[in-house]
Write a structure and sequence with these properties.
- The complex is a heterodimer of chains A (545) and B (201).
- The longest helix of chain A is centred in the N-terminal third of the chain and has 20 residues, at 165-184.
- Chain A has 545 residues and is α/β, with parallel strands linked by helices.
- Chain A is built from 22 helices and 23 strands.
- In chain A, strands 9-8-23-22-21-10-20-19-11-18-14-15 form a 12-stranded mixed β-sheet, sandwiched between helices. Chain A has a 6-stranded antiparallel beta barrel with strand order 1-2-5-4-3-7. Chain A has a two-stranded antiparallel sheet with strand order 12-13.
- Chain A is elongated and about 95 Å long.
- In chain A, 47% of the residues are buried.
- In chain A, helix 5 (165-184) runs parallel beside helix 21 and helix 10 packs across helix 13.
- Chain B is an alpha+beta fold.
- Chain B has one domain (12-199).
- In chain B, strand 1 (17-22) and strand 2 (26-31) form a beta hairpin.
- Chain B starts with 16 loop residues before the first strand and ends with a helix.
- Classes of the chains: A alpha/beta (545), B alpha+beta (201).
Amino acid sequence: MSNKVGFTIGGTYSNGVLVKLDGKSHEEIEIGHSLIVKGTQRTYLMITNDIIADSDETASVVNMSRKPMFAKEMIADTLLSSKINCIPIASSATQEVEDARTIPDYLSECYLPTPEEAWTFYGACNMEDRYPLGTIKPLDFKVPIDVDTLIQNSFGIFGKSGTGKSVLGNLIAAYIVLYSNRIKNSQLVSIPSVLLIFDMHSEYGLKLKTPTQQVLAPGVAETFPEEFRVYCVDPELVDEIDKEFRRGVLASELKIQKKNIEVEDVVVLSELLNISGIGALNLYAVKNRLEELDKTWFDALLNFDNFDYKVLKSKFDMQVITSLRAFSRRLEPFKHFSQITDENDTCQELINDLKENRNVVVTFGRYGDSEILYMFVVNYISRRLREEYVSKGITEGTKNRIVIFVEEAHKFLNPEVRGSSPLGLIARELRKRGIVLCVIDQTPSQIDENVLGMVWNFFIGATSIDRDVEVSTRTLKLPKLFKPLVTSLRRQEFLTYGSAIRFPAVVKVMEYSSQMGELRRIYESKYKPDFKEYSKSLTKALDSD
Amino acid sequence: MSFKLHGEYGLMEKAIGEVMASTFKRFEFELHREKTVETIERGAFTIVDNGAYYVVGVVTDTKLVIAGSSTRPSRLKIAPTEIDHALPDLKDRTYNSYDATIVGEFVQGRYLQADHLHHALVHAQVYSMDVEDIREFLGQPCDYLHLLYENGGVDCVLSHLIYLKNVLNHSELAQFLSGVVRMLHIRGFDELSLMVVSLIE
């Protein structure tokens, strides 16, 4: 395949650069291909965002000719011309590389990049702090992501179902694990990071699956079992994890003690439970009186219909009883959740794990489709985590960073609940205390703008909803030029931009299994904990259980 | 790149005619009378030996010239091949004359197309162009079809291409046509090139 693509014939900065193809059919250039244009004074990095075949009248004449295919061949490139439109991404002059603020001169030669040229713009991977995110099209060049910069702020992985969000999420999680180990094992001044992953479909805690539910490969926790503690919302997963994770992992059931449940933990589910604002207000007002009825106010609310009417009448007026009855009926699913118990609560243990630099996955197993339980658990844990960190003085310093991976993020970060949801508060308040979010969602347009404003790095998979495309490309320099790219992405292809990547790029995410294998090898050779130390900590943890 | 001519253009017995008039755009030559009546195809390449250089032409038109008082031939009701024997006087007074468009020249080992500087000299001998010389002349992107079009119209251009089909092989013809399209595009003759490639068989 020849490197030459064509030459620039015009364009504008705001609408993109027009390149006339020369000796190439437009079938050979894809939307999202990276190209290099050698201008008079600068070399430009560009990304194709449109393909134009506009010689329609000529084609009609040729179609009527005596030998259409012969004629077509003769006039290809001249009368049957094809053009591509390109987004100017970056430019380099001598050693200086910067965002493109000009466009290339007329008739500048355009060609496919060489690895060296791609390196000039995107830099190289070193597997220490710059890890390969994926390859740019059509070259097999690995675009590095600066993990240290990535975890300074929240980042988002967006795209419709089946685009590869979980693959990318697992990969990024693995990079963070490796990078934290590097920090722990070196004299670097940075502080290590720890992951808290709310794993709705058990793809981080257990196995990554294809859209058709076929097992693809182990998730990040199974790849680095020494580094993770898995809390299973689904008790059956505990045994499965013990069986699957050959290297031994600390898997345990997630338990929430009813007496620890606060009114806020339930009120935050108002929208999902279709509870009116008044109903929620009543709950705050009557919490103490509910506590008089049963072991906890939550028990009293769950069993509200079981109490004698006279008893209820003595404590609440009629309107409140009606409201609480409605409330109780909507909480019906909670009666069947074995995770909510009278005895113990593993939430503090989970927070302690995070404080002790142990990554945590909260995996939901068969409860992954229970929206109400997922939201409840995420909110419950997030609230306690926030309280733990807010109660610390800012001067206490941060011993580690926490990166919270949350799927279906819009449920916690939409404009209606963002102000009251613990994750919304964390996003707003705790960045300076070292807690950031990895927001994973299919519909970024439903996430509050203030939260999106705190997202510094975007990984955008294919999405066809205009609002989502618009929102996810809004912070780019020339957003409208990137929209066609987003809609044309394939599975496991992402438009990625932000502070951790030098320039926007369309990447095909690294082949998951082999990359995780490579990361595991690096981990074992460089960072694997001393076996004695490891078994000691394992015994200690088991004893504490 | 320097070329040598392959044809025997200096030999009088190989000459097919003689230049009778010329401008920078075209020349007119009369066919030498041989034993048999000859015709020159429309669109055929000819080359004129001007001494120090050669002028390349493509036949675009023809006419019959009659020397003497008569201005038109009379009906004879005999075969043309019998005229030489039956009417030797008439034989000396009728000539086939051809009009050729100058499309280039060969000077100091180089071919020039279209941007030639010379015209054909009167009484210079005209030769059929050797096939190898044609190939070399066409070795550069063809840039003379517009001249044929202006002098002889579309039919003349098509005749020339049909002539070339018999001279060039398929890939040479395809390469030639690609060059034709490119150069005609530059000169603003897109419609002509579209017509040419659409009509050729």
